[in-house]
Design brief:
2 domains, mainly alpha
């Protein structure tokens, strides 16, 4: 009898743990009707379209009237926008968020070119004196977000590229 109770208790624990674990796997966003599901799908498509066409993040641009539908649209939009952005913004130099990879790529290449030019023309090592470093906004578009963050990413990459270009490291490894 003692062993039977222990086995039943053990079985109840296993069943309860399994039920709890499977409940954790349920998708967080569940919709009660077709309108919410359609709002989510519309948002998802709109978010992807905006990234593909260079539009800014605008999750509240919808015609859905109900609060739940507007919420579903926003959730879909954010998911579609973020997924599409992650496919488009593969980092070329270093990594980072939306626009940062462009800043780093351009900054690095400009730095390499300016460093190599200064070396060829007999200038001293001066990575912070050129116009590219001072302005640091080449290639910036408002969709990239904070302009100062873009400039800082550009300058960091520029200094690295300048050093490689000036020292000849960039051209020897190609």
């Amino acid at each position: 009898m003692k062993y039977l109770r222990a086995m039943l208790f053990g079985a109840a624990l296993v069943t309860g743990a399994t039920t709890f674990a499977s409940a954790q796997a349920v998708v967080a966003v569940q919709y009660n009707d077709d309108y919410n599901r359609q709002a989510f799908n519309d948002g998802y498509r709109q978010g992807k379209w905006d990234v593909q066409h260079g539009q800014r993040f605008r999750p509240d641009s919808n015609n859905w009237q109900g609060r739940d539908d507007r919420y579903a649209f926003r959730q879909g939009y954010e998911r579609g926008f973020n997924e599409a952005r992650s496919y488009r913004e593969e980092p070329v130099y270093g990594g980072g968020g939306y626009g940062v990879s462009s800043a780093r790529q351009l900054g690095y290449q400009d730095g390499v070119n300016d460093g190599a030019y200064d070396r060829r023309t007999g200038h001293s090592f001066r990575p912070t004196h050129g116009d590219n470093f001072k302005h640091a906004d080449r290639g910036y578009v408002p969709n990239y977000g904070n302009k100062n963050f873009y400039k800082q990413s550009y300058r960091d990459a520029y200094e690295n590229g300048y050093s490689k270009g000036y020292n000849g490291d960039y051209y020897q490894r190609r």
